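Progress report, Aim 2. The chain analyzed during this reporting quarter is listed below.
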Amino acid sequence: MTNEQIGMILSLCGMVLTVISFQAKNKIPLLILQTIGSTLYMISYVFSGGGIAVVLNAIMLVRNFLFMYLFDRKGKTVYVSCGALCAAYVIAYIIYTLIAKETLATNLWNLLPVAAAFFGTVSFANTNVNRLRIWKYGDSVCWLTFNLHIGLGALGGILGEILNLISLTVGIIRFREKKNATE
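Predicted structure tokens for the chain:
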């Protein structure tokens, strides 16, 4: 089995978990499924040459555990955490870019996972799970574009993000707040 095939299998497994995660009604089960899915994606990127995606997924795992801990908090603690995580993504991008010495085109492609990480971090800062889902649209679109660039090794990521967009929409519809019938 080639590295690309291993990456594809792992990304398909990650896909299943992340798609299912958006059907969780509450934030903690959603975050747990996202964390397991992100772990599988991170390992798949090792096998498929995802480069910066490996580094960012490692930070995102820390992010997921942090937001599980902060799941019902609002205000300064959440804002500071978001800012610190976003700074970590930028620092990781800069360090990775300096060490990897990749082409300008690759460095520009690598900005997509950084943007996705920003969207994902803002999403997990929300206590309202439907607002979380709305912010995850930006995350999914960025990852979809990046995974399309990688190709077959990221097949699970490609299919996963398409299905995530569908699952996000279904989750929003399923768990939307019902308007009062007397209004």
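The helical segments are 3-21, 27-48, 52-69, 76-100, 104-109, 111-124, 129-150, 155-174. The chain has a mean pLDDT of 88. These observations will guide the mutagenesis work planned for the next reporting period.
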